Structure formats: structure tokens, C-alpha cells
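Entry 14. Structure prediction run on the chain below.
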Amino acid sequence: GRRMDGPWIFGIAQPTKDGHEVRFFHVQRRNRQTLVQIIWKHVVPGTTVWSDEWAAYKNLQTQYGYDHQT
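Output returned:
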């Protein structure tokens, strides 16, 4: 993708029996520290996390205990 002007929004979607529960977070920085803190706070370790291949998500599996898929 390409870089956009304006606020950064990071989202997490969780499948539910009725569809998906979705949470959005306004972030000042789109870096590993910011995004991993959100994931760590809102996603249980061991959960499968799907993302693109952006470097901020590197080590989600080995360092943080998530099943990271792309």
C-alpha cells in the first residue's frame, strides 16, 4: 500500500457466532512497539493473528507467543 495523510487507525477483528467483533485504535505511531502493545493487551497469546508482512509484526510468533500468519 501507500502512505496516507491523516490519522492512523489500527484494527482487530475477532470472529464470533454472529459475525465479527471489531475494535479500532487511533495510533500516533505505526511502529512495532505501539502495535504489539495493542495486540498484547487485547489478544490472548496463542491466538492466530493474520496480518500483512509488514516488519512491525515480525516476531509475533517467536517473541510473543502468537500463531502469526500472513
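The radius of gyration is 12 Å.
Filed with the rest of this week's runs.
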